[in-house]
């Protein structure tokens, strides 16, 4: 119920409802229910539905990625980690993902085995954990007239509590004001104690709004230097023309110099995350979402003009059903 009083809940609702409207209008315009897939021909379904992360990571330059491998859980996870040179901590996530569902950081063998329990034969992505000071998200696009840009740029702030010398860590977690923070899970992950005054404790290190992180708009920093920094990677990537890159870098200057590591990439389903900044108004959000879909349409037009063949409606329905199954089973 607390979600109803969270501005991010209503902005997410606006994005979803407005996007559904654009989907139906553009389906009529293109006379196809799968028009969205043309935005990124290199990714199945354009990265909108049912794409496998293990198919996308190899499309990016390896020097911008952490150590990343697909793992099908067969009980041999320790041998797998050793064979591929992994060291803890590691990041693990489903090979087919949606909105950060199932993403976790495992600090040791016990964490990994708890994560994998009851998930035999399921496919996962395992990555080395990148420990850098900043995490950013950049929504990058290239459109039909050869121009390119960054339509959304944010910094992700992990949930933090600060000790006052009196309250215990679990009491501080209970008092955290983010509506989506899973406080029970956070308390399970942290031994209770009384932090010293001024001591900062990061509750978790997963930059997802639905897990309690805060998104800070950096639209004023989305300049030519940032675009050039992202293009250091993207100039060698073909037919991924609308994507959100989640990256880690030491600071803004390093990011603009092309010194960063991509920890996640999303295609067509990417959101303009700066709408979740508390200073972005509800009515402003409508305009941002409209611009988002007009950029998307321009890229679809470009690839259709080049001869891209849309998939059948039946293929789109199968992908949608699979995503619904994943969401339904996300806590199992």
Structure description:
This protein is an alpha+beta fold. It is built from ten helices and eleven strands. The chain has three domains: 2-66 and 132-156 and 214-328, no CATH class; 67-129, ATP-grasp fold, A domain (Dna Ligase, domain 1, 2-Layer Sandwich); 159-204, no CATH class. The chain has helices at 7-30, 53-56, 77-84, 109-116, 169-174, 183-189, 224-234, 252-256, 282-305, 313-328; strands spanning 68-72, 90-94, 104-106, 123-128, 134-142, 148-157, 160-162, 200-202, 214-217, 242-249, 261-266. The protein has a five-stranded antiparallel β-sheet. Strands 1-4-2-3 form a four-stranded antiparallel β-sheet, covered by helices on one side. Helix 1 packs parallel to helix 9 (282-305).
Q: Which properties best describe this structure?
A:
332 residues, four-stranded antiparallel beta sheet, five-stranded antiparallel beta sheet, alpha+beta, single chain, Dna Ligase, domain 1
Structure summary:
The chain has 332 residues and is of the alpha+beta class. It has ten helices and eleven strands.
Topology:
Elements: H1 7-30, H2 53-56, E1 68-72, H3 77-84, E2 90-94, E3 104-106, H4 109-116, E4 123-128, E5 134-142, E6 148-157, E7 160-162, H5 169-174, H6 183-189, E8 200-202, E9 214-217, H7 224-234, E10 242-249, H8 252-256, E11 261-266, H9 282-305, H10 313-328
Antiparallel strand pairs: 1-4, 2-3, 2-4, 5-6, 5-10, 6-9, 7-8, 10-11
Helix pairs in contact: 1-9
Low-confidence segments: none
| Number of individual domains | 3
The number of helical segments is 10
Topology order in helix (H) and strand (E) letters: HHEHEEHEEEEHHEEHEHEHH
Mean pLDDT: 92
Separation of termini?
A: 23 Å
- Structural class call reads alpha+beta
Biggest sheet: strand arrangement? 9-6-5-10-11
Which sheet architecture does the biggest sheet show? Answer: 5 strands, antiparallel
Strand content range: 15-25%
Helix proportion of residues, in percent? 25-40%
**Rg measurement, Å:** 20 Å
Number of strands: 11
Dominant shape: globular
């Amino acid at each position: 119920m607390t979600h109803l009083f969270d501005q991010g809940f209503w902005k997410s609702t606006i994005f979803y409802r407005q996007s559904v409207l654009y989907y139906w209008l553009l389906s009529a315009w293109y006379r196809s229910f799968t028009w969205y897939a043309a935005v990124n021909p290199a990714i199945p379904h354009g990265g909108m539905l049912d794409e496998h992360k293990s198919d996308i990571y190899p499309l990016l330059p390896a020097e911008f990625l952490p150590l990343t491998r697909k793992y099908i859980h067969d009980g041999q996870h320790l041998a797998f980690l050793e064979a591929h040179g992994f060291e803890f901590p590691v990041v693990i996530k489903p090979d087919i993902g949606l909105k950060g569902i199932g993403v976790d950081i495992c600090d040791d063998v016990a964490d990994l085995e708890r994560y994998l329990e009851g998930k035999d034969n399921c496919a996962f992505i395992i990555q080395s954990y990148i420990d850098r000071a900043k995490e950013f998200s950049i929504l990058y696009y290239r459109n039909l007239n050869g121009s390119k840009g960054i339509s959304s740029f944010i910094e992700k702030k992990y949930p933090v509590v600060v000790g006052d010398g009196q309250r215990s860590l679990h009491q501080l977690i209970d008092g955290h004001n983010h509506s989506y923070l899973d406080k029970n899970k956070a308390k399970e992950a942290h031994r209770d104690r009384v932090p010293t005054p001024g001591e900062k404790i990061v509750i978790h290190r997963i930059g997802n709004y639905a897990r309690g992180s805060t998104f800070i708009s950096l639209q004023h920093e989305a300049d030519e230097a940032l675009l050039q920094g992202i293009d250091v990677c993207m100039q060698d990537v073909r037919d991924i023309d609308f994507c959100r890159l989640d990256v880690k870098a030491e600071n803004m200057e390093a990011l603009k110099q092309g010194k960063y590591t991509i920890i996640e990439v999303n295609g067509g389903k990417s959101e303009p995350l700066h709408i979740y900044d508390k200073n972005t108004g509800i009515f402003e959000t409508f305009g941002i979402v409209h611009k988002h879909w007009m950029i998307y349409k321009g890229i679809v037009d470009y690839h259709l003009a080049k001869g891209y063949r849309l998939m059948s409606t039946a293929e789109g329905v199968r992908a949608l059903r699979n995503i619904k199954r994943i969401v339904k089973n996300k806590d199992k």
